[in-house]
Amino acid sequence: MSQPYFPFEPAPPLPTPPPAPPPVVVPAPVVDETSLGELLSQQAAALADLLLGRAGLALLIELAFIFLLQVGLRWALGRWGERTGRSALAALARFGVRLGALVIVLALALRALFTAVPLFTAAVLSVGLAGVAFSVGFRIQAWIGAWGMVLRGRVRLGDHLELGSVRGVVERLGLIRLHMRTESGGRVLLPVRMLTEASVEVSTPEQSFPVDLLLRVPGPVGAAELERARAVAGLCPYRVWSSEVQVVAEAQDGLRVRLLAWSSSAAERAEAYLRAALAGSG
Fold first, then answer.
1. Helices and strands per DSSP (H, E), number in the chain
2. If 169 and its partner were Cys, which of 24, 161, 241, 277 is the partner (CB 3.0–4.6 Å)?
3. Residue 35, C-beta contacts closer than 8 angstroms, at least 6 positions apart
4. Residue 226: closest CA among 203, 206, 253, 208
5. Cα Rg for the chain, rounded, in angstroms?
6. Listed residue (166, 190, 163, 167) closest to 178, CA to CA
7. pLDDT digit string, tens, across residues 144-168
8. Please, what are the domains in the chain?
9. Which letter does DSSP use for residue 7 in this model?
């Protein structure tokens, strides 16, 4: 029996594989062997070039221009406040000009320093900001506590304060400063945060003591003597701020003065003050 016949066809050739890619050579990392001393020397040289070169001179000219500009603006604002009577607004604007000039000066100086000596500037700025944050943090906390006292009514306008070694009447409560009229008649400005940093004794008008003093003066009492006595009593540092002052003539040689003092001890000091100040009336 014959076998079936299958015609034979050769298989197609296999495709040639692509060549293998060349091995990737990873370069060894470059290690900067610059020592700390050399780095500091380079930064110092760059800083010297900045301060003594043209860049330093240009920066100095810019800072001088900004300084003169803010001086002129603050002077003009002061004159404007005097002419218009808006001294408070002028003072606020002068403060804004000074603050803006300070911000611009710091920005220019930091830009120049970061361009020339970035490492040195970053290190000094970090240490400085850390110190400022540490010292200012306590002051901010004291300022918040002081304004907490003000908002709760613990300290009000017209109150008599014994703040540390300062005694006086609160005339104005600013955002940062506390304006007080002292017992000597002068005005003192204190940081508001001192309300929580120092010992405080507060006397309010509700705790006042009346002073009723009869003085004998040489000679008859006329209108001029009454006006002088009223002015002296109004300036009494122991008087409750904005309280009424009464001065009347008694007989021919008598002056009766009535006012309110902060406390019993203040009433005694007020009597002594009035006797000494009005002893020569008449």
1. 7, 8
2. 241
3. none
4. 253
5. 40
6. 190
7. 888 888 887 778 777 778 787 787 7
8. 39-149 (no CATH), 160-203 (2.30.30), 208-277 (3.30.70.1130)
9. -
Residue given tokens 């800072």 in the structure block: 63
DSSP-assigned letters across all residues of 227-265: HHHHHHHHT-TTBPTT---EEEEETTTEEEEEEEESSHH
Question: Is residue 71 within a helix (H) or strand (E), and if so which, with residue range?
Answer: helix 54-84
Which residue is associated with the tokens 């006329």?
Answer: 222
pLDDT for res 33: 55
d(CA 168, CA 157): 11
Give the chain's length. Answer: 282
pLDDT on residue 206:
66
Token output for 178? 């506390």
> Rounded CA gap, 79 and 50, in Å?
39
